[in-house]
């Protein structure tokens, strides 16, 4: 049994402790906002927060998360950031956007007015096949939190 704290709620899972969090979220907990892109740590679509830090759910075993606090897109509380995303109409197909938002939320929680280089560094691991990068940057710059 593995106990996980997800979005403030405690879950006990009867699953292989090596199971990646992404599979547990989507298949066992019904939290499908976190997306499967590459499954290999390359695209950022599966980004969640672990104790406030961005982390790739496809590469993180559930066992390694015991005693830690996980936040997924369903639990993201930063309404100001979501508002900025809406104002700038960031998503196109939308598939990568949960991961984009989670990486951006981790950034603005530390640097509410990030520099271009801080944005580059924080968002470099999140790929968008629609090329929404300009709107992502604008939404982060326009963050009112
Ligand atoms: Fe995890 Fe691509 S699905 S980084």
TrEMBL record:
Classification via InterPro entries: 2Fe-2S-bd, 2Fe-2S-bd_dom_sf, 2Fe-2S_ferredoxin-like_sf, 2Fe-2S_ferredoxin-type, 2Fe2S_fd_BS, Beta-grasp_dom_sf, Diverse_Oxidoreductases
Pfam families, per database record: Fer2, Fer2_2
Chain ranges of the 2Fe-2S ferredoxin-type domain: 1-76
Signal peptide: none
Keyword Transport: no
Keyword Oxidoreductase: yes
Record key words, sorted: 2Fe-2S, Iron, Iron-sulfur, Metal-binding, Oxidoreductase, Ubiquinone
Coiled coil: none
Molecular-function GO terms, alphabetical: 2 iron, 2 sulfur cluster binding; metal ion binding; oxidoreductase activity
PANTHER family xref list: BLR6218 PROTEIN, OXIDOREDUCTASE WITH IRON-SULFUR SUBUNIT
Protein name: Isoquinoline 1-oxidoreductase, alpha subunit, putative
Organism in which the protein naturally occurs: Shewanella amazonensis (strain ATCC BAA-1098 / SB2B)
